[in-house]
Batch of 4 targets.
Target 1
Amino acid sequence: MRKVLALITFTLMAFVGLGAAPSQADDVDNEIGTCLAQGQVWLLVVTEEGEPLANQCVGNPPSGEQALADGGIRMQFGKGRMICSMSDHPETCPATFDGSYWAYFQGAPGQEYTYSELGPQASKPEGGAIEAWCFATAEAKECTPPQLNIVQGGQQVAPPTGTTVTDLPVTQNAAVSIPGGTPWALITTGVAVVLVVTALVVVQRRRRSAGPKATGGR
């Protein structure tokens, strides 16, 4: 009887131990935490309804535009190269400004987002930072990207005071090309050709101005 009771007790303890086991090791980061800890850039693009068009690590892009392209965001541009559509949201750029726009921010773990002072073509994302975009409707006039659930060292990074975290699904968008980019290769080749042609013209003019050399004498 004692052996039976001991066996039952051992079995119950084993089940309790399994139930109490943590689902995540204490030193495990989630995907965004790992990306930022490695000095890479995280891209977040959400619609006015909070739908993520992109929520993924994009490495170390040289510009904000490239970060969007690396995150699979298809861009359409308006006047002044202002991004007016991302991945068909809205489907096409409005003929005239209707009050809605894509707002551009930078963020970091546990910190509030700051509105970017530079456009995405001129900005250079910093490693360990978040490139964040949200769509502001004409009615709302403004927007703020959601605070992401960032886990580093097995602990959730506390969001700024007065905010809550949003656990959005991570995307795996394939990179796309930037439309209307400057064709630097063609420009470089063109400049080289112009320089060569200019040099040939200068040489020909110098030869003509020198004239034929005189030979013999009186």
Target 2
Amino acid sequence: MVLFTKLLLAHLIGDFLLQPNRWVIHKEANKEKSKYLYAHVLLHFVLIMLLVWDLSYWKIALIIMVSHYLIDLLKLYITPKFRLKSIPFFVDQVLHIAVLYCCVYYGNLMEHTVALFQNLDWALVTAIVFVSSPAAIIMGKLLEAMSDKIELDHKSLPNAGKYIGIIERLFVLMFIIMGRWEAIGLLIGAKSVFRFNDLKESNNRKLTEYILIGTLLSFGLAVITGIIYVSV
């Protein structure tokens, strides 16, 4: 686990802290002809050796460097084909981390992976999944009759309310698991402050009531989920 943590740290430093934006732009424009692509993967090799501080791991560092080159090169070619650039970015990061995982546990990769899944807190996983999209869909169904009577604000970001609700429910669930109930009150207060000016300017009683019901319902679902998880 210590080795994986060091490799992950080297990856984070190399991919985010020590990769200037001009390197990224140059790589996107020149692909395999970019000198910064080779500087980038070489930097990863150096970082791994520095953090591990053991020459016997040079083969692992070399494998990671070569795989990093191939994955980054693939991303450079497929990224223009995607409308959402975040998709190849996250796929790229998952592949890099998967390589690190395989390099660390190559001796018993299957056994370790099976044990990892067996030891997962499946009740927590279920709770997290529930307070995300399923809870959002349930809220949509419960508020469906009311939402038809509310004038839509076309200046809002697409699905912004949905994602705000998911994030706030995840925070509430985390606070309950940590036993920090007072933090939930602070979260409600912070959301009320941000919403106050919008509701004041709109002067729309129906919208105010709709947002209030939606907020209480969202927090309520998260609280119930948290209580059930803690009680199990």
Target 3
Amino acid sequence: MSGGPEPISAEGLRAVREELAQLRVERGEVAATLRGVDPVGDRADAADELQRASEVARLDRRIVELEARLREAEVAGEPSARVVGVGSTVNVRFDDGTEETVEISEIAEERDLTLVTFDSPLGKALLGRHAGETVNYDTPAGAASAVVLSVGADAGPQTG
């Protein structure tokens, strides 16, 4: 990403909030199993306690990451209507002439084939581009290119 505050798509925002809620529940459940200052039994008990404490720490780190991402998205506001960034809707024409409207996202959702992650080959090629520019990227089948037809509110199926 750009290193500055990045906007986030509505779908990405929903996914981050959902993951954050799930992690908070999971953290509460794992933390409730920690014994605290009570003496630990045998070595297996100590190892289990250490593993749960490590899991709580991992969950805490991810929660902090997601909370920071939500704050960053709020500061960044809406994606640009001129330059492709995370959260942008982009209409592209591929080498074979097909046109597709995609959304640049932080997350991959199996159910939504129009999401392109910012770190995918196409996503990386599109970031920072404007309408009219041609991008080149690699696919499993080899090199490919696409033309950015429109960005933002103007993106959508093109007629004509």
Target 4
Amino acid sequence: MICLRLWREAPTERRLASGLVLLLACLVMVLMTGKSDAENLPPLKIVAFGTSLTARGGWQPGLQTRLSACLQRSVKVESVAKSGETSTWALTQLDRVVAEQPDIILIELYANDATLHRFVSLAQSRRNIADILDQLHQRLPRARIILMAMNPFSGLRGLIRPFVGSYISAHQAEARKRGLEFIDYRPDWERLTPDDLAAAIPDGAHPRPEVASKIIVPQLARHIAGRDCGE
């Protein structure tokens, strides 16, 4: 609007010449303003909330870098996660998640619930995740909540989780009931050859960080920021 007013106020005989100059000046102003606005945005805050698949995952730095490049905005990924813990533990950690005031919360809390020796029944796990989702939505109504199914288990780690698929399905059902998002990385892991999968997850549960980043980051970044961000 400023550029248009200046052009109208210019003498008629000078409008053609001045118009070209003003056009170039206005383009520069628009580009500079857009850049300034992007730079002034607060960091996009993400909390990854989960088990050792998050605590030892190693995919968070890659996600931070990828999203920052895609969004042209600072991105900060924090973790509230602990190896060996269950959704029962997670219920005691909600204050920590809320304190971060995240824009996005990534959740994986089924893996240890599904182990036979921790005695978290399928019904209890489902009640826990429902309570977690309801509390987070109530306390962080603007946050985007994304549940995730991580990598497959094998060997002894798989044997102690004979019904892990049912736990994942229960958590997914609670997410869908609330209109929340769900991402399943298992199909991407299962596209690896048996030898490559065994090398990528040598203990049958915890992927090597560099491989986890290659599997998780593109899909998650694409899901958060759009198709082009995963390329």
